Amino acid sequence: MMTSYRKSGTANILSGPCDGQALHRARVGGGTVYATGQGEHGTQPGRLAWRSLSVLGATWLLSACAAYSGSGLRPGVATVAQVVATMGNPAMRWQDADGSEQLAYPRGPSGPQTFMVFIAPDGGLQRIDQVLNMEHFARIQPGMSQQAVLRVIGPPAPQWTSYFKERNELVWEWQFCDSWNQLARFDVLFDASSGIVRTSYQRQALMGWNGVAPFCGQ
């Protein structure tokens, strides 16, 4: 999914295809109500054409967002096959002893979300969680293994993985929207030999055109 920046006041707004504002615009018909112009002179074709384009655009946007986040998949109704058909092949997939599954869909680095899909033993969808948030980051504790971290928040952005030889330290990084709806990074630092978490922290992504973190409407 492509992500773009647009200037707004003194800060950039990170505008993805499935942010809250875009979804709202799509649900109300692209943000504009187009009258058909019916009256004594009949329907005005120009306005009707614009209304049709608006509906088509909104339909495309909602479809794209369903593929991005799985928003159209209903728990208890959708199957794992429908999840994959809608959202694509997961970046990571785990199967537990009881037959349940967990699928990871990282949308970074351009998108600040990772969606974790939970599948019941019978193959039906249980829920979809967006896991790049403070609730899930709080679960990352010193002493955890890399595999345990992956099960909580999914894989990091590969291009941001760093190794510091002097400290024998491996750093994984994720991009997310913080509590102020600004773009931020979450880092987990591992002992490179054992793969055990040493610590973690978050920081703003100061990559806006004016040196501040862009807004990233959730």
Task: Explain briefly what this protein structure is.
With 218 residues, the chain is α+β, with helices and mostly antiparallel strands. The protein has helices at residues 20-27, 45-69, 80-87, 134-137, 146-153, and strands spanning 4-8, 11-15, 92-95, 101-106, 114-119, 125-130, 162-164, 169-177, 183-191, 197-204. It has 5 helices and 10 strands; from the N terminus they run ββαααββββααββββ.
Sum up the structure in keywords.
218 residues; alpha+beta; 4-stranded antiparallel beta sheet; 5 helices; 10 strands; 28% strand; disordered N terminus
Shape: globular
Determine Rg (CA atoms, Å): 21 Å
The helix tally amounts to 5
Q: Please give the alpha-carbon distance between the first and last residues.
A: 15 Å
Order of strands across the widest beta sheet? 3-4-5-6
**H/E order of the elements?**
EEHHHEEEEHHEEEE
Uncertain segments? 1-17, 20-43, 46-62
Largest sheet geometry: 4 strands, antiparallel
Mean pLDDT: 79
Helix/sheet category: alpha+beta
The percent range for strand residues is 25-35%
Helix content: 10-25%
Would you report the number of β strands? 10
